[in-house]
Structure formats: structure tokens, C-alpha cells
Amino acid sequence: xxxxxxxxxxxxxxxxxxxxxxxxxxxxxxxxxxxxxxxxxxxxxxxxxxxxxxxxxxxxxxxxxxxxxxxxxxxxxxxxxxxxxxxxxxxxxxxxxxxxxxxxxxxxxxxxxxxxxxxxxxxxxxxxxxxxxxxxxxxxxxxxxxxxxxxxxxxxxxxxxxxxxxxxxxxxxxxxxxxxxxxxxxxxxxxxxxxxxxxxxxxxxxxxxxxxxxxxxxxxxxxxxxxxxxxxxxxxxxxxxxxxxxxxxxxxxxxxxxxxxxxxxxxxxxxxxxxxxxxxxxxxxxxxxxxxxxxxxxxxxxxxxxxxxxxxxxxxxxxxxxxxxxxxxxxxxxxxxxxxxxxxxxxxxxxxxxxxxxxxxxxxxxxxxxxxxxxxxxxxxxxxxxxxxxxxxxxxxxxxxxxxxxxxxxxxxxxxxxxxxxxxxxxxxxxxxxxxxxxxxxxxxxxxxxxxxxxxxxxxxxxxxxxxxxxxxxxxxxxxxxxxxxxxxxxxxxx
Length: 495
Known about the structure:
Layout: H1 9-23, H2 34-72, H3 78-83, H4 106-119, H5 147-158, H6 169-186, H7 204-212, H8 215-225, H9 229-260, H10 265-273, H11 282-285, H12 287-300, H13 312-315, H14 325-350, H15 359-364, H16 369-378, H17 381-402, H18 408-437, H19 446-464, H20 468-474, H21 490-494
């Protein structure tokens, strides 16, 4: 069982609104209305708090994308990329450790000086993200480069809006707001902690997935209404791709609900951290479902390698092409918000939600268990959930830097031929685990251990059993021909 969370935001908001209504409406002749007004004010305040938390949380993925993708895509090699962690752009070093109190930064300065003197970058070499010093502009003591995000927002806000002349103006203008509004509504049902959420209906999982599926309609509307061949192709690709991956995603989510025995998102998280169930994360009970959820979510948010609807090399910007200024900024923000929602949901569904890894074992450990218990009581549970979500987004960045863009026919074939049958298999496994294995008590240790070992062995076998000859036959043939070099006097000499 996770440690008690003192960060009871909902309880504090409810107490404050109740006290406020007692001292205002409660002292008038309309005192009977104070109860529903207090509830309405509390829910409205929680919605605002969740919006602020979401806007702050999404800055993490945006900053991580800029910093990590530059390092991962550094073709000079991993050695230079590692050096950049202690050597600044242009060989400029910010000695931030000198500002730490009580001299605790002195050892850090010694280590940094040793690395600087022995393994520093040469200032004459090209540096990653040196244009406009984007990599280091910002708060030098934390999150360097973060201020660029606010500067980009200002740039989008003041840009001129130039809609296409022949576009369907109403649909063209409405499409971005359909996408961004439905994306934000998803966060109303995603809990950041046991007491940090906007809404918690019994069927929150159903409501959330229903709203999550509305945004693709806005994508298709944007592609069609722009009256541009590139946007139309991008919209059609998006519709085909999202249809192929939405069904496996929904079946996988249904598998999670069957295993946990609930359609409530908070109860799904508590099912994994409840001491009666042995605090077993769903990742170890349904690794196939975790892989399916991760792959389908990457496709749903149209990130590499499933970014054919907005392929820059062939479709300019895909269904985004005719949007600029603040509308493009809203679409850009919605992409990262959907990615953040995917990471949060993966953390809640498979990584134990807001529970720290091995929290029960660390608290029960001899000698140091009390120290860990104090640490877990001090740090709000929402912090652990955000850290997990940002780590999952780091995996998204790794996939983007590692994999190439996949053709549309291959994307659709992968979704319909492989992911859909595998999701049905996972649903059957979840039903078997719920009805045939789970008895309401702690999970037997052998069950998650056996499932994890089998999943790892299957993965290794599939990787090692790759038929290279079959792959070679599937490669597209190419021809090489040699042509004599042209010269000004070649034709004269032939004559």
C-alpha cells in the first residue's frame, strides 16, 4: 500500500469553498443554495488547477524533445554527445555549482573541472543546437533552453493569420479548436494523484477514450477544409491510420478494465498498488498489452515512425500545411498534449500510477525502512506519476531518433494483420487471469514472474529468429548504370 499523501488538493479546495459559501451565501436568505454552489465552485477550481498543472507538465516533454533529440541525432558519435553534458556550446562553461550553499558544490566543481580539462569539446567543432544559442538560453541553473518555449509562443501569437482563399472557412477555422478542446477535455479524467483530478465518474475510462477519439475527426476536417492536395492526402492518411490503430487500442484498454475489474481510472491505479493484491504492476501481468498500448498510442499521436500523415519530405506539413500563426501553435500544443496524455495513461495503466517502484518493500526494509517512509510521505505522489510519464516520453524520443518513417501500406498492414489479432489474444489472457487465477487476494509471485520471463524469452526468440534471406527478397530492387561524363568537346570529337 502506498504511503499516505499529504498533498490533498481536492480536500483543501472543498474545505475552502465550503467555508467561503458559509460566510457569504450561508448568511443570506439563499442559504439553501450554498451546498450546490460550493460543489460547483470546488469542481470549477479543480478544473482550473488541473489545467495549470497540465500546462506546466507539458513543458517537460517539449524541453526534453529539444534537448534529447539533438543529443540522440548527433552523428558525431555518442562520445561527443556525452561530452556535451559537462561542456557548454562554444566551450562556454557556467559554473553554477559555486552558487550552492555551504560549499556543497565544491566536489561538483572538481569533477567538472577534471572532465573539462581532459575530455572537453573543441570550440572549433560544430555544436548541437548552437543556432541562436537555443540550447542554453534560459534559466542556467535549471532547464536551460526553457525560455525558448515561451519565446516561440509569443512568436506564434503575433504572426499573421492567412487562411486559403478557396478553403471552407467555417470548417477550416473550427478544426483546430475541435482538436485542442477535445485534447484538453481528456485531462479532465486523467488523475495526477489520489486527490488531484478534475472529474472521477465511475465510467471515467469510457468517457476519456470516447473524447480521445474525437480529435482525429478534427484532423480529417482540417485536411479536407484547407482545399489543398497535400492536406487532403495527409487527412486521408490520418483517417486510415487512426482507424487501423484505434480498434487495437480500444481492445487493449478493455483488457486492462477486465483484469482490474473496473472502468474507473483511479481504481485501475489503486488495483496495482493495493497491498491486498500484492502491489503487482500490470506491466508484469500483461506485458503484451503494455507493448500494444505503447505502439498504438505512438500511432494515435502520429509520432515517428507513424508520422506519414504529416511527412515533411513529401507532404510539406501534411494536414497542417495551410495553418500558420497561433492556429499552428495550437495544433503543435495539441500534439504534445496528446503525447503527454498517452504517457500519463501508460504510467497509470501499467506502471503503478503514482506509486514509487518497490515502495512497500523499501518501507518494510530493516534499519532504513523508516527513512524511506518519511521520504515517501514528504514527496507528493503526483511527482512520481509525472516522473514516470516523462520517462515514457523519453522512450518516445528514443523511438523517433532510432526508427525511420514507415510507408502507409506497411502501417495499415501492421495494424490490421498483427496488432488487431494480438489485442484479441491479450483480451483472452486478461479474462483468463481475472476469472481463472485472481481470487481477490494477493497475486501469487509465480504468476507475474512467469509471465515476465515468457515475454522476455519470446522477444529474444523473435529477434534472433529473424530470416535475413526473406528480408533481402522483400527489399525493393535497384539498378546502377554508368554514364560517361559530359564534356564541352565530347560531341565535337565524335564528329
